[in-house]
């Protein structure tokens, strides 16, 4: 991994922060500050080190999670929550929910403890 891929991961993370926290300036600034601190802490890592590769991979995973899985809610006047779902939000088809208990698989491909 190189400096170019680290900068690309940083820019991608900043874009995801902007999408995920749109309209919430305080949270957006805190997330940007945290991203900056993490990248600054790893600035002096050697170009071809495993630690650098792992750090860039983690930044890309966090970026993907923020953009696709984080949904913010705001309390309305009626006391209900209004969710801000955008075009990047991952939407499942809920097919796994329709399967009978005991046939659902976890992320690791093994049945969960309650399914035995």
TrEMBL record:
Residue ranges annotated for the Complex 1 LYR protein domain, each copy included: 6-61
Pfam families in UniProt: Complex1_LYR (PF05347)
Listed Basic and acidic residues bias regions: 87-96
Region (Disordered): 87-110
Keyword Glycoprotein: no
Major location category of this protein: mitochondrion
Keyword set, alphabetical order: Chaperone, Mitochondrion, Transit peptide
Family that this chain belongs to: Belongs to the complex I LYR family. MZM1 subfamily.
Quaternary structure annotation from Swiss-Prot or TrEMBL: Interacts with RIP1.
Name of the featured protein: Mitochondrial zinc maintenance protein 1, mitochondrial
Organism name: Phyllosticta citrichinensis
């Amino acid at each position: 991994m190189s400096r170019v891929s680290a900068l690309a991961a940083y820019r991608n993370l900043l874009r995801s922060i902007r999408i995920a926290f749109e309209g919430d300036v305080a949270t957006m600034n805190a997330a940007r500050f945290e991203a900056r601190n993490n990248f600054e802490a790893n600035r002096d890592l050697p170009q071809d080190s495993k630690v650098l590769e792992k750090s860039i991979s983690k930044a890309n995973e966090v970026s993907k999670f923020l953009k696709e899985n984080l949904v913010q809610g705001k309390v309305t006047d009626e006391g209900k929550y209004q969710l801000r779902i955008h075009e990047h939000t991952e939407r499942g088809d809920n097919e796994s929910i329709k399967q009978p208990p005991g046939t659902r698989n976890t992320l690791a491909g093994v049945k969960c403890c309650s399914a035995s």
